[in-house]
Amino acid sequence: MTLTVAGLQAGYGGGTVLHGADLTVPQGTALAVLGRNGAGKTTLVHAIAGLLRPKAGSVRLDDVELAGRPAHRVARAGVGLVPQGRRVFASLTVAEHLDLSRRPGEWTVPRVLELLPRLGERRRHKGNQLSGGEAQMLAIARALLTQPRLLLLDEPCEGLAVDLAARVRSVVAELARGGLAVLLVEQQPEHALAVADHVALLGDGVVVATHTADELRASPHLADRVLSVATHA
Ligand SMILES: Nc1ncnc2c1ncn2[C@@H]1O[C@H](COP(=O)(O)OP(=O)(O)OP(=O)(O)O)[C@@H](O)[C@H]1O
């Protein structure tokens, strides 16, 4: 299963933010999308997830066209979203969140709790009693229970303490190794390199460059250039 985004255009009202973005995420790999604030990373994730209707272009899971489908149908086709800011309900317990997200499939509640054991310990805690890291784990658990083949994560490490951010990154890398296609938005290039197989740079509404993480690790000069484009372009 491969995600193929081609010529994707999207924006708000009459304005266009994405001017024809192209990228590919094969199953079993993670692609990190980097770009400065306002580059359109969230817009890209929302356009793939069907939360924002693309103005043009295509979003395909293998041969299935998703562009133009509403979000619930995109989800049913196998796209799970971990939104920016986690979106956890303050008054629902962890167990209730998991129950609400559950669809039949290989990801069961016991399986997600095995992957994210801290959530098991916090089953009876409400959303507003969770730490940022726990809320992020819950957001990932909810997305997995929808049985995705493609997982979209919008800045999953934002605002997390260093050790928790590292834990989230290792869970995300494990999910990709386990066979999911993963697309994650990252602010920090060094975090992206820790989890992703490929790094795509978004600038001016298009993907201006894609590199393998190995390439970037092997060439500090190239990594510096990417870093400066990602943060200052
Ligand atoms: N709901 C909206 N209505 C109008 N304009 C929007 C809306 N959401 C985002 N924008 C604009 O679209 C552009 C891209 O925003 P987007 O959130 O996709 O960027 P981003 O790369 O995710 O940024 P950040 O790193 O700050 O999250 C920005 O100029 C932003 O102001």
Automatic annotation (TrEMBL):
SUPFAM superfamilies attached to this UniProt entry: P-loop containing nucleoside triphosphate hydrolases (SSF52540)
Domain of life: Bacteria
Gene3D superfamilies, per database record: P-loop containing nucleotide triphosphate hydrolases (3.40.50.300)
Record's keyword terms, sorted: Amino-acid transport, ATP-binding, Nucleotide-binding, Transport
Pfam families linked to this entry: ABC_tran (PF00005)
Annotated SMART domains: AAA
Domain ABC transporter: 3-229
GO molecular function, one term: ATP binding
Family: Belongs to the ABC transporter superfamily.
The protein, known as: ATP-binding cassette domain-containing protein
Originating organism: Dactylosporangium roseum
Lineage: Bacteria, Bacillati, Actinomycetota, Actinomycetes, Micromonosporales
